[in-house]
Write a sequence for this structure.
């Protein structure tokens, strides 16, 4: 009976690994930052070395623990590729890539975005697999000719562990998985000029199924015993939902991570009249509606570096400033990387509004955190709007940014209702582990995580008024976000063959 798993969450900024039992007890946890450089995307080989190193470190602290399996949750979308010899290309392009912006704008003007949404329930964005594929065919056709496999981050890491090429339904949902057949759609791919990608897409193996075993080479790099079963994982946001224990209609999981994302489970529904967000297929007659903004903690990191918040105490310094900041008129539109949900605007730009002679660094810091909060509420309102009765159940806030109590209170203020804070930093890893244990009937019910109830405070009225102005500003400024304005440098990057 499987009793202990190594569960990995391979995110955009961090890779985490936990050793977890069937009762949900975390026996150990390690993490490391994702290696990045100045080039677009990241190096797949470095991502694998980081992941292998995190697993090796975890196992070194628990040398006597029996390891009965490995499972991975990972960042979704993007473009991870292997050549015909099974070697990864030099670069992988991520969900937050902007290289496909012009492609998205063209598809939008042609009506292809709306048509794709009607068939698949997902609005494509610059970092989606389809847009990046068409872009890469244009800028590096010689590379495309060598590509034999296209998949996602966790799929690549599974390949490094096992040598098996596969994906799961949650990652396959975007962009070509037909919700009616459960198979890739040739018509959907051809409509976007991606018919040639289908032969490069991997077989689909259900989450929780064993897809392979740890190879001798992977064993040497990770410390995992050769032959250890590797189970199919899932897209990280789905794994977080499983880890939180949510799933009833109207429940919302909102995460303040690299992206500010909001999600809720519904039964399989026809796409809404107004295209927005993404739809991920779940088991049975269920689907996950997701609004994943391009704004999040990475946006806050951008501001902090620009504003001079530095050192180990930089976050404390930021929130100390915000605590002293009067509630002025400053508003921030956090679209420094464009936007993908709830509005598709790849050429959107960030804006500070309401600046007066009284504006100072602390007030601007408050506006930046609130701008990300406003996007999160916008996403919550949008996912709830897809339900048949727009029910509001439990709203749980998670993610790295939520660990700051003041930010969680800001979210409650913006919503005007209580929320619950799940402070566990390993929800994604817990979620895929729980899914494997449930699949194998090998574990007892996971213990519910401790949650804190967060109530709005006296600032709520002012925060919600700024949210109203935030939405009004978007409506006013969005006509300026055309392909002829800004982000030119993003579309003029040079790439080495």
């Amino acid at each position: 009976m499987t009793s202990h798993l190594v569960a990995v969450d391979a995110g955009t900024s961090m890779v985490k690994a936990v050793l977890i039992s069937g009762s949900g007890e975390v026996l150990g946890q390690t993490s490391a930052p994702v290696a990045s450089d100045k080039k677009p995307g990241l190096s797949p080989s470095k991502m694998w070395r980081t992941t292998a190193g995190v697993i090796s470190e975890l196992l070194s602290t628990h040398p006597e623990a029996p390891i009965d399996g490995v499972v991975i949750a990972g960042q979704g979308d993007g473009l991870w590729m292997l050549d015909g010899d099974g070697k990864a290309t030099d670069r992988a392009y991520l969900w937050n890539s902007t290289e496909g912006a012009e492609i998205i704008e063209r598809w939008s003007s042609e009506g292809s975005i709306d048509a794709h949404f009607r068939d698949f329930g997902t609005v494509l964005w610059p970092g989606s697999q389809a847009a990046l594929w068409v872009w890469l065919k244009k800028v590096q056709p010689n590379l495309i000719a060598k590509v034999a496999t296209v998949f996602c981050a966790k799929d690549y890491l599974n390949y490094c562990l096992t040598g098996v090429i596969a994906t799961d339904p949650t990652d396959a949902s975007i962009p070509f998985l037909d919700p009616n057949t459960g198979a890739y759609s040739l018509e959907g791919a051809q409509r976007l000029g991606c018919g040639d990608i289908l032969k490069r897409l991997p077989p689909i193996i259900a989450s929780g199924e064993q897809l392979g075993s740890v190879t001798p080479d992977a064993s040497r790099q990770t410390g995992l015993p050769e032959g250890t079963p590797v189970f199919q994982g899932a897209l990280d946001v789905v794994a977080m939902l499983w880890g939180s224990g949510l799933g009833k209609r109207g429940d919302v999981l909102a995460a303040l991570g690299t992206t500010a994302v909001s999600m809720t489970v519904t039964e399989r529904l026809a796409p809404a009249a107004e295209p927005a967000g993404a739809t991920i297929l779940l088991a049975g007659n269920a689907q996950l509606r997701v609004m994943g903004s391009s704004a999040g903690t990475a946006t806050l990191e951008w501001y902090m570096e620009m504003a001079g918040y530095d050192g180990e105490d930089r976050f404390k310094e930021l929130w100390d400033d915000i605590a002293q900041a009067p509630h002025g008129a400053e508003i921030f539109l956090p679209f420094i990387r464009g936007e993908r949900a709830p509005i598709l605007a790849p050429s959107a730009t960030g804006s500070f509004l309401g600046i007066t002679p009284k504006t100072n660094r602390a007030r601007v810091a408050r506006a930046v955190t609130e701008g990300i909060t406003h996007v999160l509420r916008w996403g919550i309102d949008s996912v709830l709007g897809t339900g048949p009765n727009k029910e509001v159940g439990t709203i749980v806030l998670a993610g790295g940014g939520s660990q700051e109590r003041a930010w969680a209170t800001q979210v409650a203020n913006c919503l005007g209702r209580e929320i619950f804070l799940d402070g566990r930093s390993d929800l994604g890893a817990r979620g895929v582990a729980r899914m494997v244990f449930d699949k194998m009937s090998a574990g007892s019910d996971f213990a519910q995580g401790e949650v804190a109830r967060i109530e709005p405070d006296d600032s709520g009225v002012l925060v919600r008024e700024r949210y109203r102005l935030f939405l009004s500003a978007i409506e006013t400024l969005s006509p300026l976000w055309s392909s002829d304005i800004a982000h030119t440098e993003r579309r003029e990057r040079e790439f080495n063959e």
Remarks:
- DSSP finds 17 helices and 17 strands in the chain.
- The longest strand covers residues 14-21.
- Residues 168 and 205 are 5 Å apart (CA to CA).
- Confidence is low (pLDDT under 50) at residues 485-497.
